[in-house]
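We now fix the convention by which a protein and its fold are recorded. These numbers are not coordinates but entries in a learned vocabulary of local backbone shapes. A record is reproduced here so that you can trace the correspondence yourselves:
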Amino acid sequence: MPDPKLMEAAVHEYVAAFDANSPERVAALFAPDANVEDPIGSPAHVGHDAILGFYTASMQTGAKLKLEGPVRIAGPYAAFAFSVLLNLGGKDMHVDVIDTFKFDDDNKVIEMRAYFGPTNMHGFA
């Protein structure tokens, strides 16, 4: 069973890596065969190279993350609410998101799912 303290630390590292514009730091949180589904229902990014590519592209928007409350941990899962703050074309925008991470016994993320939709996107009109 993964360690809850290390799971919470991984969430905080995820946020800090966005602040540092470091997709490599994000990718390092994931197991080699992990998958990322962002947003939920979209095709998954599977494996280290695909995950690194996804986060490299995500960070090109200048996106920063702001946690909105505590990390919730249940068994091998961590869930956390946050806002994505970005500026496109001189316009400030944000997206309200809930992510879930599932961890393996080595405290690596094996599954990430992002929950948000059009009603959670503000300033995109």
